[in-house]
Each structure stands twice: as C-alpha cells, then as structure tokens.
# Entry
Amino acid sequence: MALRTSIVYGLVAALWIVFSDRLLAALISNEGLFALLETVKGWAFVAATAILLYVALRKQLERWELESAERGQAETALAISEQRLRLAMEATRDGLWELDVATGRSYFSSAYWRMLGYEPDEHEPIYQSWVDLIHEEDRERAVKVSQDCIENRIDAFQIEFRMRAKNGDWRWILARGKSEKRDDQGRALLLVGTHQDITDRRRAEEERRTVEAQLHQAQKMEAIGQLAGGVAHDFNNLLTVIVGYSELTLAALGPAHPVKGYVEEIKAAGERAASLTRQLLAFSRKQMMVPEVLNLNHVVTDTAKMLQRLIGENIVLTAVLSPRAAAVRVDPGQIQQVVINLAVNARDAMPQGGQLFIETSVNDWDADRCRLHPGSKPGLYALLSVTDTGTGMTPEVKARIFDPFFTTKEAGRGTGLGLATVYGIVQQSGGYIEVSSEVGVGSCFRLYFPAVEAEAAPATARERAEMAPSGDETILLVEDEESVRRIARLALEAYGYTVLAADDGRTAMILAEQFGRVIDLVVTDVVMPEMSGMQLVAKIRARFPTLQVLFVSGYANDPTNHDAVVRASSAYLLKPFSPHQLAAKVRQILDEAGSRALRAGAGSIPTDQLPR
# Structure
C-alpha cells in the first residue's frame, strides 16, 4: 500500500512540475499574478508533500506499533510455551540433548546430567562424552543406531541402554532421537532427542520375570514332585518287602550257606535303592520330618567336622559364622544333608582344588524383598550360604540344576538328585533358595529360613545304647499294603511279639475288641483308605490319651497330616525299614513308656472300652 501511494505521488508530482508552468503561462499573461501563483504553487507543493509524508509516516508508525505488539505477543507465547515445555520436562525428568553432526558439539540439558548425578560442567559437551558413559556391553548397538539415523538409514530411533552414574551405579536409559536437518545427500546435520531414566521400571520388570520364573519352576517341580512322591511311596513298600525278607532269610541261613552272599547283595541293593527313594521324597517334599529349633551355626560347626574328609585336602574349607545367627525351625538331619550335598556338589566343581566358604548371617526382609519369593513374609531370615571357586555354571545349566536326574557329571558319578534333594528339603522347611554363578568364577547357594524367637536346642548328639529288640507284648499292626503287612508281622513275631494284623482302621478296632486281652502298642501306617492312621489313633486316644503309637509312613502325603503326626508322637518309622529296625523301634517305645509296668493302666487298651 505504501509503495503504491509513493508511486502515484511521484507521478503526480512529476506531471505537476512539468506541466504546471506551461499551464499557468497559457492561462495568465500578467507577470505579477504569474509570479504570485508560482509562489503559491511552490508552497502548495511543499504542503501537499508534507501532508502526504505525515500521513505515510503515521501509517508506518502504526504498522510498526502493530508489528511490535504482535512480536511481543509471539515472544510472550513462545516464553510461555518454553516454560510449559520446561515444566513438562521437569515433571517427566527427561533430559534433552542435541547433536551438531558436523562439529560433534552437543547440548545436554541440566536434567540430562541430574539423572546421572553429574554437574553440567563435569563433562565436555561433545558426542564422545555420551559414548564414554554407555556400558561397554551396550555401546556398540547404541552408537550403531545413532549412526543409522545420521546416514538416513532410519529417520528416528528408540533404544534402551545403561549409562554410568557418578556414584558408579549403572542407570537404564531410554533414548529417543530423530534428525531435524539433512543435507542434499540426506545425511543428518542435526539430531535432537531425549533421555529418560527407566531404571526403576527395568528393575520391576526383572523382579516380575524372576517371580514368573520362580512360579514356573515351582509349578514344574510340584508336578514332578507329585509323580516322584507317588513312585517313591509305592517303591518304598516294595523295598520294605525286599529288605525285610532278605534280612529274615539271612537270619535263617547258616554262616557258610552257599547262597548267603547272594542274599546279602540283594539286601545291600535294596538299601541303596532305599537311599534313592529318600532323596526322591526329599525332592518331592513328602518325607516325614521332625523339625527342631536350632542355631545354624551349630549345624555348620557339627557338619564341618566331616566335610573336610568328604571334599579332600586340595580344597580349603572356611566357615564364617555370624554371632547374630538366628534360630530356625528345621529337621537337624535334613539340614545337615543339605550342607553335605552342597559341599559335595562344590567339590565336584573344583577338580583341581579351590576354596569352599560356608557362612551364616541374618537378613531383614521388607515387602519389596518378599516380592522376589512369593509366599514369603517380611521379617528376619537366617541365611546359610555355600560358596565355591569352581567352574561355575552357564545360564542354561543353572536353569535346570534342581531338576531331578539332571546332572552334568560323567556317567556313574552322580544320580542327579543331590540338588533336587536340597531344593525339596529347603522348600519343605519353609525356606527359599537363591543361586548365583559365573563360568570360571564359581557358584553361591544362599538358603534363607524364617527366623524363630524360641531358644535353639543345644547341638549335642543324642546317642542311644543298642537295645535288645525282642519282647513278648501284644502289638496291633495296621497296614493296608498286604506284602508290607505280612513282612512286618513276620518280623515282629520273629522277635517274640504277639501281633494282631489288620488291613484298615475299622478292621483293627474290631480285631482288638475280639482279641479280649491288653494291647500294648499300635503300629499303624499313616496313609490308608477310608480311615487314616491319625483318625484311628484319634478314636482310640479319645479315651486313652497316653496310648503309645508307632506311626509308619513312606511319605508325608499331606503337610497338615504330617504336622499332626509329629505333634501326636515323635515315634515314627520311615519306609523302607528292616525287621531289626522295626523291632528295635517298637522295643524303644515300649521301654520308654514303661508299658510292662503299666499293662493294667491307661497305657494299654482294655478291649471292653474300645470305641465303636
């Protein structure tokens, strides 16, 4: 508009200058009047020019004021937008970065450095500063993705990697970036992006994966354990028969009998098989256990005496016992087996020698720690760790170490049940296992058991003198497995006892009533159809609370039932058992209760008062 006005004014002024004199000369002949008009014309031209300039200047000033106001509003809006962006970035704690590809110079926001714990001036603002802080395992792929973006192989990227914080920790970073400018060949001139600290998220994901893996492992072990427990239970019944008849046969044979050696081999094989079934039951968490309150320091001290002979002279055993070691409730024999199994496993991982560390301590678990082990509760846990400097394990091997019959040892050197047994015992004891291992460095097994407030029992071995197992008392034998019932009856009768044998609880009660005399002891299987051993004993003990009972079991089918057995009587015998073991256990119970002196008292069963 101003340009058009100036052009029009210029044309008018030029025409006026050129034609005004001629026009005046043609119209006015009086020189005086002509001179006057010439003067008026000049001043009119000056005035018109001044007015026009004033108007043009006024309009230009208005335009400048408007533009200034608009620019101010834009700057205000930009400032507000930048403030909002800054607040948003502060809220998300994201760090901003910018890279000039040609110079390698970079810009890193203060939030970028704060998430790593650095001050902005601690590192030179160049691309290499970013590269140097990236974990060496992540550096190659992080550099590659940025180069791909620079070379126009990708337009934008998103990648996760670790960066070293000032305190030495590694923080997980989510980096996003894209190209803002490119040259004619498509190569990026400027990259911009953000960094976000996702360490907490990664840790939560890792915890979730750990819990899922533990759940999967627990489900797998539970399924295998159900199968193993069932097989072991049935196998124990068979082994009871094999070992029992072998022992009775040996007793009947003379010392020079030609088949005596064969029978001894049969008995020895049965006993070795029994050892395997015990490991299966430990793995499947179906073994009978009698937990006691004890101090893990005592377990380590007692076990260390025999461990050095097991692991050999080329392995240095070091026990580090915490003075704060808490009391735990576990089966002493089973926890000792755990330590021995772990020590033997460590020995096999150190064929050229090494160091074995057994340590105890106390850990306080909070809710976050408990999330790693579903079912655990916050509180104090006693820790027993076994660490070796052996060959270590690959992640693939580590994932299967608790599987039954899985072994990396050469044929004939292991059954694959050692660590499976450890797993079962720890689980049945209410504990938890953590394993860390690195190839060429060694392995560490950490066993955690809930601490108890009760005072630990002294670690003194209770030695009993060998008792003569024979007797003349009357025993009510209740066993649903016919072959086991037959060998148990033969064994007890061979040692002089009178035996009433029944295949279930109801028959046992009827048989006892029909017998008509005093019964001194009830020997009953725990797991039976229709009426369990516990239910049978409950019916009898409703009237005779001090009645002596020997429970016989191949496994703890139900943890609740197992606990009830332990509470009801510490007298139990695990299958498979030999005739001598059965008779000796019966003799021990009867002698401890003083049944001979109390045959007419509450310790025996007068048949006229049997419950019906």
Remarks:
- The longest strand covers residues 170-182.
- The first helix runs from residue 2 to 27.
- The chain has a mean pLDDT of 78.
